[in-house]
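Supplementary Note 3. Input sequence used for the single-chain structure prediction.
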Amino acid sequence: MIYNQDCIQGMKEHIQTGSVDLIFTDPPYGIQGDKLDAHYNRDESNVVPGYVEVAKETYADFSRQWITECARCLRPGGSMYTVSGYTNLHHILNALHSTDLVEVNHLVAKYSFGVYTKHKWVSSHYHVLFWQKPGKRTFNQRYADTKQSYHDRCSVMDLPRLYKPGEIKNKNQLSEQFVHKFVEYSSNPGDVVMDPFCGGFSTMRSAQRLGRQFCGFELNKNAVRAFSGSSVKKRLTPL
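The predicted structure, written as discrete structure tokens, is reproduced below.
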């Protein structure tokens, strides 16, 4: 199910306590993401309009609310991955520490498309926070070969660039290749995967490809119509 509504209220209304096996999400960063094209000199002609940003002044409370709901929705042993930049990372971590979730790993995803700077280091990474609800956690092995498995599971990894010239895309969209890895490691066929901030729906497509069930939330009605697919049931509530 895809719900075109605020995820905080939506999770309260639609998601039962302890019913989700895995959450993978890339929330707004509170850094005026709706205006980043001016800094990156991007061609936005193929980007779906309507990206919803969160004001920096309200980011702490916003983080606490949606993360509290995610913690409630996870089953015992359920996993949660949150992708974050560094600017408001402390608010995400504070919110996580306020729940009953526990930290598993703090991963770093390196990308090659940072903005050039003259007077400070070029930012070229995201944080991927891996937390779980206490209980038996799913973590699958993808490779039998020890060396290959080691390199695949390093806490510093490359973030493949989403390059689809001429295709419709979402602003600041993660590649499915990147998301697919986490869904495969931390869930099993038939499990419920949730994304509170669907964006370009990379998590949904990865979950479906791997035989998982999916539920998610996205405020931008343009993104829901563009990326969720005709085979997915949608509740398009008024914005």
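The helical segments are 7-14, 37-40, 59-73, 89-97, 146-152, 176-186, 202-209, 221-227. Residues 36-41, 230-239 have pLDDT under 50 and may be disordered.
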